[in-house]
Amino acid sequence: MENKITLTEVVERMLSFDEGEKASMLGIGPMSKMLIKASMLLAKDKDFPLMFIASRNQVDADELGGGYVCNWDQQRFAQAIKEVAKETGYDGLYYLCRDHGGPWQRDNERQAHLSETEAMALGKKSYLIDLENGFDLLHIDPTKDPYTVGKVIDMDVNINRTVDLIACVEKERIAKNLPEVSYEVGTEETNGGLTSSDNYELFIKKLTAKLDEQSLPHPAFIVGNTGTLTRLTENVGTVDSTACKTLSAVAKKYHVGLKEHNGDYLDDAILLEHPALGVTAMNVAPEFGTVETQAYLKLIEVEKRLHGQGLIKDVSELERALKEEAVESGRWKKWMVDGKDKLSAEEIFKDEKLTLLITEISGHYTFNNDRVKKEIQKLYQNLADNGIDGEAYVIYKIQNSIDHYVECFNLKGLTSKLKNMQ
What we know:
Layout: H1 7-15, E1 25-28, H2 33-46, E2 50-54, H3 74-88, E3 94-101, H4 107-111, H5 116-132, E4 137-140, H6 155-175, E5 182-185, H7 197-213, E6 221-223, E7 230-231, E8 234-235, H8 241-253, E9 257-260, H9 268-277, E10 281-284, H10 286-308, H11 318-329, H12 345-349, H13 352-362, H14 370-384, H15 390-408, H16 414-420
Parallel strand pairs: 1-2, 1-10, 2-3, 3-4, 4-5, 5-6, 6-9, 9-10
Antiparallel strand pairs: 7-8
């Protein structure tokens, strides 16, 4: 896409909107190729820009461990999105975004308690590969420090690491004559605590001063926590409207956008007020993976019913495959509460209700497993033989989930509006 508006320019234009025309952007976790397809079909219809926010666990270089989503590294991820855009006829704005990039952001790096030097080197290597593969936004987040677990990382340490990482990327970008890239900085407090406006502003002041010393670009987004916290299949935090309004005003003063993370499962009343409160963007990821998993489970139910009527002889083993692969993956542990993350697979399989819950919240981690892929195709074929388009149903359910954000965030028509602004 020639002369694509950068995300920095998008934020600048959105900050200039009049009160009655405000919007909030949506960052979509690329949990599967199906989700990307559903997103592009919806964006094509409703004319809004897409931000695909990939964590290092989801998409990363093979030499750094690869990604669990479709086994994508940065190159395959970028290529897959191009292919889906061509397949769907989508020629609107889309942005490849690194979510939570930097040191210790891969689970194995944190579990290995890598030294700061080792972790920073790996974080930089990942960013440079992002850069070479056309990523538009890099989230600089050096706060997953295994040596400060349970503590808030020192602000100056965070800022120094952030500037070091941006300086490294910019040096490489300029040396290779690559296009400008936008940055996102800061991180949410994972305990659900609010970001204070005083600390938020102090962080921005100190960071921008350090960036200016080295003639480095200012970020497009600065993350602030307004109370969101995702657990299981709900948002257990309490979103503070005053915090949204206050933090967005602070961010706007420095010509950057407030970015919220962990926006999954929020009530529409909360989402509807986001544009008015000045929240520039919000990330949603696990919710879309859960919706896709639930769609497969519903199709499995249909398959069973048709089997009961003698219309399908050889049913798929998708239900068993999803449940076993999801539980045995162990990736559900970070979403659990009440000590259930300590349970063994054997204990979980004895509890049918808990097994289903774990499948719903972590089924998306298994979509690329050969066993699961094989059974999905068998399910689709069984349904197709009876006149049911299973893939179309899955896309429909994902689109419904995305669409309520589109409506609440005033996103319809935003692409054309941004392009028409000078």
